[in-house]
Amino acid sequence: MARAYDKGMVPAVTVPRLALYLRKLRELQARGVRTISSQDLADKIDLNAAQIRKDFSYFGEFGVRGVGYDVPRLIDEIMKSLGLNRSWSVIIVGAGLLGTALARYKGFSEQGFRLVGMFDSSPKVIGKSYGPGKVRAMSELEQFTREEAVDIAIITVPAHAAQATIDRIVAPNIGVKAVLNFAPVKVFAPKDVVVRQVDLSSELMFLSFYLDRE
Amino acid sequence: MARAYDKGMVPAVTVPRLALYLRKLRELQARGVRTISSQDLADKIDLNAAQIRKDFSYFGEFGVRGVGYDVPRLIDEIMKSLGLNRSWSVIIVGAGLLGTALARYKGFSEQGFRLVGMFDSSPKVIGKSYGPGKVRAMSELEQFTREEAVDIAIITVPAHAAQATIDRIVAPNIGVKAVLNFAPVKVFAPKDVVVRQVDLSSELMFLSFYLDRE
DNA sequence: GAATGTGAATTTATTCACAGCA
DNA sequence: TGCTGTGAATAAATTCACATTC
């Protein structure tokens, strides 16, 4: 499944850009565009063309000089590069407002992220179903992961519970290796676990900073 | 309201870190910590101490040599730097799953972001209330902004509608100057409008990339 | 002729390392 | 002595510019 190049050589900032390219390329493909140059793509997403070519170059040589990139081929290559040519199983821990909204969000399953379960410690929500996610008790987590491999955990618990939840999720008997944390705290995890933080109030503060000029 | 330094001199990457420092400092303050050194703070959030000191240095000299930083003072300075010593009015455009979940989310109002309205074009949701946000028809947007100044728009409409929605929101008669876009498309706005993109499926793809090693 | 792929140059961000102050 | 504030050094990311290929 892994590819020939070394992932460690790919700058971390390149990865979200690949997702951006992928989206635009799919849109182009849907409109019947078969070939695109780095310059045309750059114009469409307001980026430098050399940036795009360099980003691709970490993964191989996908283009044709004098011509450009074949759109379907490029989509396929980016999907392979991002590990999207397979399905990943996801659990959501925390069935509050955000967790349940995410459970019913279509965008994830469209990209091959399969929600296999939800967990919460509150009896009020245990047993309820949100989209494909039936809420189980936190106490069932270990048993559940013995029967179903879980690749990714989305954490939507309150801030004060986030670190303890993550400690539990990444414990060897559960073995989750990737965490998307929506709790507004910086969390720690072992080096072999990828953690990505989404922080909504931090995003608003970013806007506030740039709004606050005279 | 604006401060003495030039915002253009502050690296964009510093701004989200300020939000991070702020959160940790508030937690420390709640635990009764009065003073902290850059090194202690760095240890707590897994960052380099010089990074923290340099970030602060863009805004002034808040520390005391040989001692460290006074926690309440530093909180106050960061809040001023981020423009959080005032309240910002926010509208949510798109009353779907995510929009309604955000409307009821407490974290925003705690930071001084005041939800003043929600808008949607679907008759199914117009008139409903979610937390502090009553959903109005999109057609009322112009009238509404004539009566109530709106600083920030959170966009939670479907991807295909995002650019048109943003074009409307930033039009001179509405005058929104900051946009937090949850729609999974890169959107364009005039240079004087700050746009911040939150892309959930891109975050999952990031995890997928690092998961996909042998 | 046109557009890729990539070393080199540049710009931006991080970290070092230390002078200077409490 | 201890820790800040910051120039200088380093590292990382972006952009240029051009040789190379179709």
Task: Write a brief caption for the model.
Two copies of one chain form a homodimer. The first copy, chain A, is an alpha/beta fold and about 210 residues long.
Write the layout of secondary structure elements.
The structure is a homodimer of 214-residue chains.
Chain A: H1 14-30, E1 35-36, H2 38-45, H3 49-57, E2 63-64, E3 68-70, H4 71-82, E4 88-93, H5 97-103, H6 106-110, E5 113-120, E6 129-130, E7 133-137, H7 141-147, E8 152-155, H8 159-169, E9 178-181, E10 194-197, H9 200-211
Parallel strand pairs in A: 4-5, 4-8, 5-7, 8-9, 9-10
Antiparallel strand pairs in A: 1-3, 2-3, 6-7
Chain A binds a DNA duplex (22 and 22 nucleotides) through helix 3 and strand 2.
Annotation keywords:
DNA-binding; 10 strands; 7-stranded mixed beta sheet; 214 residues; 9 helices; homodimer; 3-stranded antiparallel beta sheet; alpha/beta
